[in-house]
Design goal:
- By secondary structure, the protein is α/β, with parallel strands linked by helices.
- The chain has two domains: about 200 residues, Spore Coat Polysaccharide Biosynthesis Protein SpsA, Chain A, CATH 3.90.550.10; about 110 residues, no CATH class.
- Strands 1, 2, 3, 4, 5, 6, 7, 8 and 9 form a nine-stranded mixed sheet that branches.
- Helix 10 packs antiparallel against helix 11.
- The chain is globular.
Amino acid sequence: MNRSHHPKLTVLMSVYNGMPYVRDAVCSILHQSFHDYVFLIINDGSTDGSGQYLDTLDDSRVRVVHQRNRGLGAALNIGLSSVETEYIARMDADDISLPNRLSVQLEVMEREPDLVMLGCGLAFTVDGVKYGHPPPMPTTNDQVVSILYAGGHGISHPTIFCRAAAMRQAGGYRIQGVGQDWDLLLRMTEIGRVANLAEVYYLMRLHQESNTWKSAEQSIRGNAYALTCTRCRQGGQPEPDTETFFAQWLDRPLLQRLESFCRARADGLYRQGVLRMLKGERLSGFGCLGMAALICPPKLIMRLRRIGMTRFVRMVCHGRRTV
């Protein structure tokens, strides 16, 4: 890359034991229709050959930083501290960005200077196959904020394209552990307008090894902390430190702890059901969804409202139908 040239965009990705999926993630960025960017990859202490693979990448846009394992938030903060471009686009090491993602998001951000963060629609991928009927994303600022404040997925963290100055103003990633993305997204909404593109430009890989499939309880706890901090800021109150909050979380009344356990179990079963149905295993998929409904009916109802009953039925009936 010409040293006198300064790209506007850095694509920021952290990798921890990302094999074999990291190859597809990297290729999806290197083959974007928009080419003028820095691809900053933080190898967060991988032990599965990911670091060696990253060192083989022969592309002037790629910068690889190797460090001991410190966790996703810490790794992304290392990347944020060295970003010199106006914009940052996030990318997860097991997902796929569709070819026009960066060009479309950049065009919108350039056209709307009051927009500080822009996500996009996503679809699921299993075994390299794209699946249709994705969950619709809210498109307006008010819709995104409302869903985030209600504890829902108002914007998907790995799809975001944001102004680097706004991310720094928000303080980067503060929580080390599950909930760090939610905390950042909530603070970004306090800085300026946010939105999603309705169109699908990102494929989220569903697989058993994905962290989001293993940490439903930690996710509920981390998101609760992020929301509590948000309410404290809004009320002019000091935010609790993580140790105090998590200690109080574990010491909650039995019924509240039971509710969280049921929500976490239902969330895991729901995701397992979606994964199985998308792989064509509809009978076992229905079984998981049925168990999720029995354990926590409000959770399933909330998801069905968001997806839409028609979309849900079509997804179930068509199974492997592609986007």
